[in-house]
Design goal:
- The chain is mainly alpha-helical.
- It has one domain.
- Helices cover 68% and strands 0% of the residues.
- The protein contains three helices and no strands.
- α1 runs antiparallel to α3.
- The chain starts with 5 loop residues before the first helix and ends with a helix.
- Keywords: Membrane, Transmembrane, Transmembrane helix.
Length: 62
């Protein structure tokens, strides 16, 4: 079975998961306001910054 067609799909799914996870964490900890936060603001403090970095490295590996 050829797995190469699933690589772009997995990268897109991981990107969407990363954005949703960081947004939920940042709002739940009160680091950003729930209405239209910038991703750079949401990923600037811990623990969101750690998840952002880990998932970004994983996307780069794929």
């Amino acid at each position: 079975m050829n797995l190469f067609p699933f690589i772009p799909l997995s990268i897109a799914a991981l990107f969407a998961f990363k954005l949703i996870l960081i947004y939920v964490l940042a709002v739940s900890y009160g680091h950003v306001k729930p209405v239209f936060p910038y991703i750079s603001d949401a990923g600037a403090t811990h623990p969101e910054a750690a998840f952002f970095s880990i998932l970004l490295y994983l996307e780069g590996f794929l």
